[in-house]
Amino acid sequence: MCSPIDALPMRQVTATLVVVAGLLTTRAVRAEPDAREPADEATVAADRLFEDGRKLAKDNHPVEACKRFAQSDAIKHTFGTALNLGDCARRDGHLGRAWRLYHDAVRAADRDGAGSLAQFARDRAAAIAPELCTVVVMISAPDVTGLTVRIADYDVAASSQLGRWVALVEPGPIDVAVDGVAGGARVTRKVACAAGGEVATVELHSGDLTGAAPRPPATPAAASQSRAAGVSVGVGYMPEQDVGASVAFGGTVELWARPRVAIDCHVAGAGFRTKPFMQQGRAVQQTGTLAFLGPSFRYAVAPQLWLGAGIGVAAGFWVGGGTTDGAVRPGGELGASYWFARSFNVSIDGFGFLDRGAHPGSISVMMGAKLH
Known about the structure:
Layout: H1 10-23, H2 41-58, H3 62-75, H4 79-91, H5 95-111, H6 115-128, E1 133-140, E2 148-151, E3 154-156, E4 164-169, E5 172-181, E6 185-193, E7 199-205, E8 229-237, E9 243-257, E10 261-274, E11 277-279, E12 282-284, E13 287-300, E14 305-320, E15 323-341, E16 344-353, E17 362-371
Parallel strand pairs: 1-7
Antiparallel strand pairs: 1-4, 2-3, 2-5, 5-6, 8-9, 8-17, 9-10, 10-13, 11-12, 13-14, 14-15, 15-16, 16-17
């Protein structure tokens, strides 16, 4: 079972963009400039792009609207562009980036004394905070003023508490890097956060900041990340067979994921051997296997508890007593998994033919590991 929030419906984000744009008469939260002072060409271009984005959002074209907001933001970063780009990131499921953009908007509004708009952006950030992990970096050293802390590929400003940096990021393996160490070195750590609402803490001391490896040269980000895959093994039970032994196996390849939903390519199977039974006056045993293959939808009802269902193809084959039998038919699968850690779970999985007839199904209890 693969772990890993629903992206907002497009129409909801469109409505959001319209609301945000409607709050603003210009891109930036500031007093209107004196009419006698002509705006520079860059500002005029940025305002025009922002207005184009507003119109596209109102006309239900959120993708094009987000492009205009990004182009405007590249010229000048303001409350309006930050807030709208935050909604764009939220629509695309990039909640960590959305949270950071909302806080950029808060800072822009506070800088310009627009308290109501700052609160509006804070509410946006607070709405997605439960779906994010909190990473806290604590450094105990005589002087931390020259250090730069980077969490999940972005620089984090120090909190009001000296030696403490906090960021909200999307669940998953999280890289932490500290620069500014003597000799130009970089200290790195990796932490894991399985689900939103969890807190991961990194503690560093003076000794950790000495003898660190030199900072590696910057390299371009990978175009994509490999999807997670998992394997599982366990014991199975086949209700319609007098089974003497059964071994269950399974595997997944994650096709698409958000923090609370995922779609996997899922395989589950069980090999079995029946107890001896009498057939035509002699004791015989049957040996066989039953397997399911197909897409499976997973949903997190709690941070560690995932439920899943899939429809695909089921195949069975068994021999014994001088007979051979088999079938390939539409199949179904239901399961639940509990994740004790990001890469380890215990699951209950049931699968079989949708039109079972006399063919067996299987219920299995398995332990699995997820590979990244």
